[in-house]
């Protein structure tokens, strides 16, 4: 009870004085578990202390939050018209910690809502950054960036994130208790459901592109062709949204027991174990909701300036829009999820790691992408599911490789290296290829090939 007691316990029991004054100062600034004054009976002490406690918890929630200084700098840079490349770069790094805070606040509020509502909230906010960036890009007519970021988000999750989970988890858990080589395992229902849904999403993206090539070969006029592709895309989007609702109902209601391995011991966002349960009880739903709203507003502002500088970046840095959408934006949006998934994989919690990586991919494929198609329809923007041919092929092959990799319900570091290697190959292909070469109108070789196949009939 006096100065000889352990520091951590002393700081939790009181706001101190005397010998503990130094610890109280440290707690006030750097201890996310306790803030002196929160339990005070005086309102003018209690409420400011509570606001500071929530702010401190948020700021200390992730190491990447050290990049938060880029948020005000990026907003100032965009508002005052700095060099576009500087505006893009600063806002790029500013969005990374904001994505981490979004993930943290979502986890906090999900804990209070229960499994079903918590899962739905994670489904809504898990890919909030990509959704916000895509909506702003859609408003600005950057349809290629929107489409690329959708495929890029899926690829980054099923290749990069899952590959890193398999690789680092396999390295750390390489041997069993006898010293023999061992594999990590995860629930087969996760692999089977994931494989089916990802195959469906691949088909939904391949079909409009195939129809485009066939119509292009018949020399129909441009407007008629676009109407046909839009009609197919919008009808497909509605079906995918219905299937996503059924998937949520299946996972969270009727067959939640099949997915209980991921959700019973750990919340959807990735904080784990009963030892850490205390940390997850600190923030009330109202406080978490306010953090969520403020962060979403900041993400929207930074994303607006980031998207607005893309044209200048493409012209001056000679980077293709496809590379920006496919690689850069998903890395920003999924940074927090990447870290979470790898950490739990290293701790041999592969069901949770798979849930983070695959769950995000399914959300993008079955919810976010069709939602943007419908939103484009409402906004009068010709957003469709006709993706660039190379993007579509890359996505389809990636889904095929992932299906073969996860179907046995086991993973090792070699499989992880293979998935990461494929992602790097795809990223390199998009990095070295200029934007003009991805233009649909310049895909003449492919169109000639289609005509040669269908021309005789």
Describe it for me?
It is a multi-pass membrane protein. This is Vacuolar calcium ion transporter. One of its GO terms (biological process) is intracellular calcium ion homeostasis. Its main location: membrane. It comes from Microdochium bolleyi. With 457 residues, the protein is an all-alpha fold. It has a single domain, classed as NCX, central ion-binding region (A middle domain of Talin 1). Helix content is 72%, strand content 1%. The chain is built from 19 helices and two strands. Strands 1-2 form a two-stranded antiparallel ribbon. Helix 5 packs antiparallel against helix 12, helix 8 packs across helix 14 and helix 8 packs parallel to helix 15. The longest helix is centred in the middle third of the chain and has 33 residues. It is globular and about 75 Å long. The N and C termini lie far apart (91 Å). The relative contact order is 0.17. The N terminus and C terminus are likely disordered.
